[in-house]
Amino acid sequence: MSSGLPQDKLDALTKRFDSIEAAMSSGPAAEAFVRLSKEYAELEPVVRPIMAWRKLIDDLASAEELAAGPDAELAEMARAEIAELRPRIEAAEKNIRLLLLPRDAADEKSVILEVRAGTGGDEAALFAGDLLRMYQRYADIMGWRFSMMEESPGEAGGFKEVVANISGKGVYARLKFESGVHRVQRVPATEGSGRIHTSAATVAVLPEVEDIDIDIKPEDIRIDTMRSSGAGGQHVNTTDSAVRITHIPSGIVVTASQKSQHQNRATAMKVLQARLYETEREARDSARSESRKEQVGSGDRSERIRTYNFPQGRVTDHRINLTLYKLEKVIAGEALDELVDALITEHQAAQLAAMEGVN
């Protein structure tokens, strides 16, 4: 039974896994043990399925041998086993192909989530608030930590702009396809005639980076302090605590205006690092391939990626032509996984098709 799987690569992975197991059991120094444990944890989810698949192949070979033998009863039992093994082997091979796909180096990272009101005035700001709560609830469901970093409230509620940090294992892998323009169609609470309005908000999901991921030279940034804007009256912050950081080479400007100037500097630098890191990633990916149809959405913020239609109770993701008639559950974060899973599946299928095309 020919699988088409790259046997040399499978052999190399299992051989390396075995050597790591042997090295760990030999009692290495603490530093070496930590390094080996990390590599072991990365390889195990790939190697275990390879081992299980190879056992199925061996079982199939044994069953085929019995099916061709002289004992009629054993041959009948073997044929039944063969019929059961073949689909299991096919499913195992498909899973291994997915596991062998090139991984995005940022997939395991936490993220910085930016949501901005787009066209639509007050209604766009309210929708931006809805989206923020959707991601916050989804983070709670996934067991991730959600924390606000910067916010600019809308005049009628919601947010003109809001930045949050979502930390946990594999956050970027789950949320990276959320970047883009989200459109809402609904009757605003202030609309007396019942006319449906269309508004939009922009979502950006940036992988959180460490200092070692991207180097920002002190001479490349300008840091300004300014007075934070407040709600008026006694709530106005009269100290110069707000921070604006300008990255001179790229022109990227980041502001933070919470109460602590020290915290604002740290927040602004974290957001700047994430934006520069994502800019470098986009430039690198674009250079690798001008046409990226195999990607599920390019992340271009001018794209309308999804529509939330309240009168019809539906959510449509335009990149994969998927419509769910469960808007309330999606906007509550409860059914967002259905969209996320579909986007990831489509992305993996496109990657597999691209790899098979190359091969």
What does this structure look like?
With 359 residues, the protein is α+β, with helices and mostly antiparallel strands. The chain folds into 2 domains: 7-99, no CATH class; 111-351, 2-Layer Sandwich (Alpha-Beta Plaits), CATH 3.30.70.1660. The chain contains 8 helices and 11 strands. It has helices at 7-25, 30-67, 72-99, 121-142, 171-175, 261-288, 327-331, 336-358; strands spanning 111-117, 145-153, 159-167, 180-186, 197-207, 221-226, 242-247, 252-256, 304-309, 314-317, 322-324. Strands 2-3-1-5-4-9-10-11 form an 8-stranded mixed β-sheet. Helix 1 (7-25) crosses helix 2. The longest helix is centred in the N-terminal third of the chain and has 38 residues, at 30-67. It is flat and about 90 Å long. The protein starts with 6 loop residues before the first helix and ends with a helix. Mean pLDDT is 83; it is low at 230-238 and 287-302.
Q: Would you tell me the overall average pLDDT?
A: 83
The count of β-strands is 11
Specify the number of helices.
8
Helix content: 40-55%
Strand percentage, roughly? 15-25%
Any idea how many domains? 2
Radius of gyration: 26 Å
Query: What CATH architecture of the largest domain would you give?
Result: 2-Layer Sandwich
Q: State the distance separating the first and last CA atoms.
A: 19 Å
The run of helices and strands is HHHEHEEHEEEEEHEEEHH
What would the CATH topology of the largest domain be? Alpha-Beta Plaits
The chain-level structural class is alpha+beta
Identify the strand order in the major beta sheet: 2-3-1-5-4-9-10-11
CATH first level of the largest domain: Alpha Beta
Low-confidence residue ranges = 230-238, 287-302
How is the main sheet built? 8 strands, mixed
What characteristic shape results from the CA principal axes? flat
